[in-house]
Amino acid sequence: MDSDRALEFRPATQDVFEDVVLMLGPKRRPDAIACWCLTYRDGPAAVKLTAQQRRDRVFELCGRAPAPGILAYAGAEVVGWVGVAPRAEVAELRNTDSYPRIDEAEPWSIFCVRVRGGHRGHGIGSQLLDGAISFAKEHGATLLEAYPLDTEQKVDAITSYPGLRSMFERVGFGKAADAKPNRAGIPRVIMRLDVTRTE
Hints:
By secondary structure, this protein is α+β, with helices and mostly antiparallel strands. Helices cover about 25% and strands about 25% of the residues.
């Protein structure tokens, strides 16, 4: 894939739910437990859900406005996903020991960035962030937060779902505070972008 190829972004709505399934659902068995990007969104409540309940929950979220995230397309093929929503709607971010509140602002949050297997390493991540910024801004956001890993070491696709600090820096985010390291001990940071200053 050409790294300079422009992607098209669409809200993750119910009419494109099969593409949401391709990005977030289990890869081998439909009855397997997958995250479905609910670990952040619903917090501990997501752990109790069966595979079908997780799918149903995401379908329900895709029927809301705004959508729970955006999908990226290269032509007709879905190649990426970003979970983006107001911080107040993301249960995991209520844990201020792990994700400190910096001030009284009510930012939107980017909490999951996924590039489909076979498409990584082509600059899609930065384009996904640009799409998420535009989506949040269109829905009234003035401030965006993210919680990426603060490392330049190679990490696997599952671990790297929050994105890497360098990726966010490339699109204008700056470090605002430290966050609690992930379970593997990799440092994390809280990064922010004032979207009123973006074109």
